[in-house]
From TrEMBL:
GO terms for biological process: glutathione metabolic process; hydrogen sulfide metabolic process. GO terms for molecular function: hydrolase activity; metal ion binding; sulfur dioxygenase activity. Pfam families: Lactamase_B. Gene3D superfamilies: Ribonuclease Z/Hydroxyacylglutathione hydrolase-like. This is Metallo-hydrolase/oxidoreductase. Residues 1-28, 309-338 are annotated as: Disordered. Keywords: Hydrolase, Metal-binding. Residues 12-24 have a biased composition (Polar residues). CDD domains: POD-like_MBL-fold (cd07724).
Length: 338
């Protein structure tokens, strides 16, 4: 089987063992660093949810064996809401890709509790073990400390108890924690506004921003979820833009407008500052964000995503029949329908 990788500079391909499966979340691309010492970034686009997942390779762990340490950021489960089917092709593809590249996954990171896709974080963390596609047993599943607030807010809505939330993540981080991938430092940057738990991860001259700003022709993330704040989002954007102009901002989603054919995963700080359609005038950013958010419909996978993602990507606890079921809180206005 042959994977085809398209790099920013040139196309290249590599062979993989026949037991590996190609990621289904194509197109995926490799973004080579400008400087040799910088990490290499692989992006994977999950078409049905417009989500980018990333595999980020730090500087060499073991130059002799060629093994590189990597982290996986914002992985996705394949979920079909109509049938209730949850499958793992995309996540399996990510793990196969890492194995074929001789990568060692040392951590599985979440930027936030997503409301538009189901996270594969728990599945990947628990699937990787020594001798099976990886050399680190169960790399930790990591998210920002603010997840506790998100869990407190949403667990009762979905009938989840404190016990149901136990063990959902391996490590809750704040900005003071020292994370590394290979010899590269990972700076966690708290970027609330879209959600309270939101973290960006800076690795070299790359920041994995999750949902803060998007590509310049798309704009910025919504700030109307419970616990969200347009004011905080504005402050988080200012914080992001403090980085050096050539820093790449890797986004959590891309929704290409009709004028652009293909999804793209990053723009530089400089491009974001000068070209982002939502950042042209930051004086009235908050007001414009509030108006726009009132017009937006709820994300298609809002309820399934939240009840799975506040548990790290685990399905709801099964009932007595062993079947897991999603809960959808209904609103009926003033109509008496009960
Ligand atoms: Fe989000």
């Amino acid at each position: 089987m042959q994977f085809r990788l398209t790099t920013d500079r040139q196309a290249r391909s590599f062979s993989a063992s026949s037991t590996l499966t190609a990621p289904s979340n194509e197109p995926f691309k490799t973004h080579l660093p400008v400087k040799h010492s910088e990490p290499t970034v692989h992006s994977f686009y999950h078409k049905s949810t417009s989500t980018f997942s990333y595999v980020v390779a730090g500087s060499p762990y073991d130059a002799e064996s060629g093994v590189l340490d990597v982290v996986i950021i914002d992985s996705v489960l394949d979920y079909d809401a109509a049938s209730g089917s949850v499958t793992t092709e995309s996540a399996d593809g990510l793990m196969s890709f890492c194995a074929a590249q001789n990568y060692r996954v040392t951590a599985v990171l979440e930027t936030h509790a997503h409301a538009d896709h189901l996270s594969a974080g728990f599945y990947i963390s628990r699937s990787l073990h020594v001798g099976h596609l990886n050399r680190v047993a169960n790399p930790p599943l990591i998210i920002g400390k603010g997840i506790e607030e998100v869990q407190r807010r949403f667990a009762p809505r979905y009938g989840l108890t404190q016990g149901d939330l136990q063990g959902s993540f391996d490590l809750l981080i704040d900005e003071k924690m020292n994370l590394r991938v290979g010899n590269s430092r990972i700076n966690a940057i708290h970027l609330p506004g879209h959600t309270p738990d939101h973290m960006g991860y800076q690795i070299g001259e790359n920041i994995f921003t999750g949902d803060v700003v998007f590509l310049p022709d798309v704009g910025s993330a919504r700030a109307d979820f419970p616990g969200g704040s347009a004011d905080l989002l504005r402050a988080s954007i200012h914080r992001l833009l403090d980085a050096s102009p050539q820093t790449r901002l890797y986004v959590g989603h891309d929704y290409p407008p009709p004028s652009r054919a293909d999804p793209k995963c990053f723009s530089t700080i400089s491009e974001t500052q000068h070209e982002n359609v939502h950042l042209k005038n930051m004086d009235d950013f908050v007001q414009r964000r509030l108006i726009r958010d009132k017009e937006l419909a709820a994300p298609r996978l809002l309820h399934p995503s939240l009840q799975v993602n506040i548990r790290g990507g685990r399905l709801p606890p099964p009932g007595p029949d062993g079947v897991s079921r999603m809960q959808i809180p209904l609103t009926a206005g003033s109509a008496n329908l009960l």
